[in-house]
Structures are given as C-alpha cells and as structure tokens.
Design goal:
There is one protein chain. The protein has 445 residues and is mainly α. The chain is 86% helix and 0% strand. The chain has one domain. Helix 10 packs parallel to helix 12 and helix 14 packs antiparallel against helix 15. The protein is globular, with a radius of gyration of 21 Å.
C-alpha cells in the first residue's frame, strides 16, 4: 500500500488519486444514461418517464451507500495514514458487516413499500405500475450495490482508486451490452433494463470484494477483531452526516420530483432526461470531494496539516476548469443532448422542458463543485456538524421554493431553486472552514 497522498505534492497527489475516481463515476453514470436512452427509444416516452419518476428515490439509496462508504473511509484513512493497521483492518470488516446488514433492511423496506412511496410522490397513474416494476427489481439488487460502493470507498481510503475504476468499467460495459440485448433484442421492455443493471452490478460487486479481501490479506497484523462496537460507533458518527451530505441534492430532488410529477408525463419526461445529464455532471465533482476527504484524513493522521489548505486550493482550481468545460459543452449542444433521450414520437413539450433546464443550470456547476470540495475537507477532519447543517439549508431552500411557488409562477422556479440552494450551502461551509483553518485541523473524532 502506497502513502503517496501524504508524500507527493498536493496537486499531484489529488490528481493521481481523484482522476480514476472521476472516470469511474462517469462510467457509473453512463449506464444510467444508457438505461434511459435505450428505454426511451425502444419502449417509449411513458417508460422513460417511469424511470425518471423512480430515479430520485433510487438515487437516495445510492447516496446512503456512497455516503456511508465515504464516512467510513475517513476513519480508515486516518488509521492508514498513522500506520495503525490493526485498527484499520478491524474498522474495515466492521464497516462491511454493518453496511450489508443495513442494505438488507433497506431492500426489504423498499420491496414492501415501493408502491406507496411512488404514490406519495404523485407519480402519474398511467406510469405507476411501470415505475413500481422498475423499482422492485432495483431493490432486489440493493445489497450488491451497497457492497460495491463500500468496497470502492475502502479502496480509496487506502489510496487505491484504480482498481475500483477497472470494476466500474467492467460493470458499465456489461450493463450496456445487457441493456441492448434484453430491451431491443429480447423485447423485455422496462424490466429488461432493470435486470441488466442488477446482473452487471451484482457480478462486479462479488469480484471486487474477492480482490479486496485478497489484497488486504497481504497486510499482516497480530490477532484482530472482525467486528467492534467502538469502531462501528466511530464509523456511524462520520457516516451519518456524510450520508446526509451525499443525499441532500437527491432528497431535494425527490421532494421536488413530486412537484414535477404533478405537471404531467410530458414535462416529467423532459425533466427526467435533463436531470440525468445533471447527475452525470455532478458525480465527478462528488468524487473529487470524496477524494479530498481521504487526502485530508490521511494527512491529519500523518500530522501534515499544512498540506490540507494546499490540497483544497488545487481542488478548487480543478473544479473551475471543469465547470468552464461543462458550460461550453452544454451551451453548444444542449439541444442534441436532450434529443439523445427522445424518439420521433416524443412531444415538443418534453423536449423543450429538458432543453430549458439544461440551458439554465449550465452556468452554476462551479457552485456545487466548490461546495463539495470544502465539505470534503470538513468531513476529512471529522468536523461534520456545520457542513451537515449547510446541506440541510440547501435542501430546505430547494424544497420550499419549489413546493410553494411552482403552482403559482410555473415549473421554472424549480430551476432557480437549485443554484440558490448550492450558493447558501457554499457560503455556510466556506465561512466555517475559514475558522477551522485558523484554529488548526485536529481531528474531531
């Protein structure tokens, strides 16, 4: 295991560590785009709307897995940075056991209440059964999804981001092949897309776990526990706020989704297509924030606190460059991007809705990128209270504006609520980070 996150120059270390995570995140999102594109073209607009109606809900469960893994990785990165390998291995196995139990519980909950959840979200009656079908197949595969995400986070805590990338590429390519085969060639429709995702993620999760355990076995320690209540408590202390942080955007989208759903299938289809693109853009930013957490935690464990502000500065520069690239691409191509999800039967209202949202939101990704970087540092030192509060403020702004004003002034208020929430979150987190920087980066757990 290499300690380059504490030894290489900050910009080089973060670039080396984050790039595979960013590429992997893009591949992870590609198969969700393919799901939508294949279903939209070969099944129809109603099926595309069904995926969109369930997407915000499924993403919350993904955020629980990703956020929980990110929180656990902070503790494990600290042990790795200080070379306390015995506690590190105990914490690793404790986190795997804990999150798999959680995944099983959530899977059962989802299967029992999927129809009620979609009804609460005001899913249009004509697509309710299709949305529930897609959602139920998703819940069958939830334990595999959690296993994959926690193993990826553990790899990253140890400074290894390339192996998760390889498994993501494998899973994404397999998912695309199965998508086309099940939906277009076998005619399985919406269910075919869901089963393709389940099979691809399941196989990738099992293989990733096997390789991780084999590599971990190379680190020799004296007798150690497989499960520790103390380590579980520390993991939860970090994981729960991390889950809230990871989930805020999606929880807001879930609640706002109920507003969008009430405007009808055509607007829902257009908004769903645009939101898929937004998610694709944000995921690499989220990966950079998670990378900064592991970088920060390892450097605090190694007592090299001066490197933290340098790493944050380098990350913010990366976010600025990325945001300008995204703005240029979307402004030039938003019409063709939305057309990718539609077919010749798609309504003009669906197409115009998707184009309007992308055209507006393209200016504001630098806000959410900067917020994730600052939050990543705060999570890395275990100081989770304020960034959790900041993300709750973000959520409140998005939901309150959408739910109180959408029916009065139109669906466009949903667009405006997004950057306003991001900006408020960034201001709160940055103000608090300035205070943390002055008093020192000692760990808060």
């Amino acid at each position: 295991m290499d300690h380059y996150l504490t030894n290489d120059s900050p910009s080089k270390a973060i670039s080396k560590f984050a790039l595979p995570m960013v590429v992997g995140s893009l591949f992870q999102q590609i198969y969700t785009l393919v799901d939508s594109a294949v279903v939209g073209k070969y099944v129809g607009e109603a099926a595309l709307a069904s995926i969109g109606a369930s997407f915000a809900l499924t993403t919350i469960f993904i955020c629980i897995g990703v956020g929980g893994g990110a929180g656990a990785s902070v503790l494990i990165a600290r042990y790795f940075g200080s070379r306390d390998y015995k506690r590190m291995k105990t914490a690793i196995f404790t986190s795997i056991i804990g999150f798999l139990v959680l995944a099983l519980g959530l899977s059962i909950f989802g299967l029992v209440f999927s129809k009620k959840l979609m009804a609460i979200l005001q899913t249009p009656e004509e697509i309710l059964d299709m949305a529930v079908l897609y959602l139920n197949i998703y819940f069958y595969g939830l334990p595999f999804l959690f296993m994959y995400n926690i193993i990826s986070a553990l790899y990253q805590a140890l400074g290894e981001s390339k192996i998760p990338l390889y498994f993501l590429i494998f899973s994404s390519v397999l998912n695309v092949i199965l998508d086309v085969y099940f939906v277009r060639d076998l005619g399985f429709g919406l269910a075919g897309a869901a089963y393709a995702t389940l099979l691809a993620q399941g196989l990738s999760a099992v293989l990733s776990f096997a390789v991780f355990v084999k590599r971990l076995g190379k680190i020799r320690v004296e007798s150690m526990g497989i499960f520790s209540k103390k380590e579980l408590g520390l993991i939860l202390k970090l994981a729960i706020p991390s889950i809230v942080q990871q989930s805020t955007i999606t929880i807001g989208q879930l609640l706002v989704q109920s507003v969008v759903n009430s405007f009808g299938v055509e607007i829902l289809a257009g908004f769903s297509a645009a939101f898929r693109v937004e998610s694709l853009i944000i995921v690499p930013i989220t990966s950079l924030g998670n990378a900064l957490s592991s970088y920060t935690s390892q450097n605090v464990g190694a007592k090299k606190e001066a490197r933290i502000s340098q790493g944050l500065r380098a990350s913010l520069i990366m976010v600025g460059v990325y945001s300008m690239m995204v703005l240029s691409i979307l402004k030039l191509n938003y019409s063709s991007i939305i057309a990718f999800f539609m077919n010749e039967k798609s309504s003009s209202l669906a197409i115009e809705t998707g184009k309007a949202y992308l055209d507006f939101i393209s200016f504001f990704f630098i806000l959410v990128g900067s917020k994730h970087c600052v939050d990543g540092v705060l999570r890395g030192i275990g100081d989770v209270r304020v960034f959790t509060f900041a993300n709750i403020v973000n959520l409140f702004i998005r939901v309150s504006l959408s739910m109180t004003l959408a029916y009065k002034i139109g669906i466009g208020i949903v667009w405006y609520s997004v950057p306003i929430g991001w900006l408020a979150n960034l201001i709160i987190s940055t103000t608090y980070y300035s205070k943390v920087k002055k008093r020192g980066y000692e760990l808060r757990f």
